[in-house]
Amino acid sequence: MSTHIDPVCGKRMNVNKAHIVITHEGQDYYLCCPLCQKEFEQNPAKYMQKKSKYKRR
Ligand SMILES: [Zn+2]
């Protein structure tokens, strides 16, 4: 059993209880609720981990 931290709100959760998992730039992000999902989708660069590269135009 593993836990992940929601990058939007910082809540620690069991992966089985995550609202949704978003894979972005090869990294999985576990979000606890629709609000966090919406926030992440609106501004993914803000919440991405630095080790994943973000391509800018
Ligand atoms: Zn959350």
Structural write-up:
With 57 residues, the protein is an alpha+beta fold. It has one domain (3-47). The chain has helices spanning 34-42, 44-47, and strands spanning 3-5, 12-14, 20-24, 27-31. A two-stranded antiparallel ribbon has the order 1-2. A two-stranded antiparallel sheet has the order 3-4. The structure holds zinc ion (ZN). Zinc ion binds at residues 6, 8-9, 11, 31-33, 36.
Keywords summarizing the entry:
single chain, 57 residues, alpha+beta, two-stranded antiparallel ribbon, 2 helices, 4 strands, binds zinc ion
Layout: helices, strands, pairs:
Blueprint: E1 3-5, E2 12-14, E3 20-24, E4 27-31, H1 34-42, H2 44-47
Antiparallel strand pairs: 1-2, 3-4
The structure holds zinc ion (ZN).
Provide a concise account of the structure shown.
With 57 residues, this protein is of the alpha+beta class.
Q: What is the overall silhouette?
A: globular
Overall strand count: 4
Q: Report the uncertain regions.
A: none
Helix content: 10-25%
Number of domains: 1
User: Major sheet: size, sense and barrel closure?
Assistant: 2 strands, antiparallel
Question: Whole-Å distance between the termini?
Answer: 39 Å
In terms of DSSP E residues, the strand content is: 25-35%
Radius of gyration: 11 Å
Kindly state the mean pLDDT as a whole number? 87
Query: What's the arrangement of strands in the largest beta sheet?
Result: 1-2
- Distinct bound molecules: zinc ion
Structural class: alpha+beta
